[in-house]
Structure formats: structure tokens, C-alpha cells
Design brief:
By secondary structure, the chain is of the alpha+beta class. It contains 2 helices and 3 strands; from the N terminus they run βαββα. It has a 3-stranded antiparallel β-sheet, covered by helices on one side.
Length: 70
């Protein structure tokens, strides 16, 4: 199982977190999606066939792209 926590600058309310959970949870292999409005962070756990690239692409499509690190 893989796990990744990351910032999502566009999170502004519980509705944003709900949207992220709903959309990312539909990816086959995603086991858990959690979001925190106050810190604008999301944590996702997944197994194959899900990939980070799929998760990231889904987030971009719904306008909740992860913050670019580095």
C-alpha cells in the first residue's frame, strides 16, 4: 500500500474536501482519502491498479491540483 500526504491550495471548505473524497475514491485501488480544511492537506492511501499519476490527474481535472513541491 502506498500513502501520500500533500497540500491542496484550492481547499476552502468542507465541500471541497467532500468533492475530493468523492472523486478520488472512485479510482480503482484507492483505499482511503482524508482532507483537512484548516491545513489544506489531503492524504490518500492506495494499492494497484491505482497510481499516483491517476490520483494527481483526477485532482487536476476537478481543480484541486496538489501544490508543486520543491
Amino acid at each position: 500500500m502506498e500513502r501520500k500526504s500533500f497540500q491542496v491550495p484550492n481547499i476552502g471548505c468542507d465541500g471541497c474536501v467532500r468533492t475530493i473524497k468523492t472523486e478520488v475514491s472512485q479510482i480503482s485501488g484507492v483505499k482511503m482519502v482524508e482532507g483537512v480544511v484548516t491545513s489544506k492537506t489531503v492524504t490518500v492511501e492506495w494499492d494497484q491498479p491505482a497510481t499516483w499519476q491517476q490520483i494527481e490527474q483526477t485532482l487536476k481535472e476537478i481543480d484541486y491540483a496538489p501544490a508543486v513541491s520543491g
